[in-house]
């Protein structure tokens, strides 16, 4: 990936804005995660928004990871999670980048974002269940917890994609964003003789 100053500044700005968004999210999550795990599950998608947004807007390898690093600079010093927010942000950014890395960053369809978010939500829900004691709940309540996390991740992905489309229409990333998908060239029509 060719990293230009403009790309770094764009990732820094999006990461900083994401960090500001995550300050109250981290603090609220710390307060409610153990006492209201379902409410925590419903808000887990918030952490995806900045990283879905930057990936959808720029369509370049590594931009979610860069934005996560910049977001972590802010959240590390302003939330109760401290430096562990770096690991959380990087985990999310890497998980969101993996589906695109599989295609060598050639295809940027919306469904890839949704699949990545749903898989991440499913995997994260098992970790969260153990950490929050949800694994001691009844099976239907555990299933509800998992479904709420996945729904939150999908809703946040939708919002991140929507915001990226709206910002892209302004033209501010012209020349910086990669095309959405590689399209095969159409063969030229040969005029009939």
Automatic annotation (TrEMBL):
The entry's keywords: Membrane, Transmembrane, Transmembrane helix
A UniProt-annotated Pfam family: ABC_cobalt
InterPro entries for the chain: ABC_thiamin-permease_prd
Domain of life of the source: Bacteria
Keyword Membrane: yes
Membrane-spanning parts: 40-58, 63-81, 87-105, 112-132, 144-164
Protein name per UniProt: Energy-coupling factor transport system substrate-specific component
Organism: Agromyces atrinae
Taxonomic lineage: Bacteria, Bacillati, Actinomycetota, Actinomycetes, Micrococcales
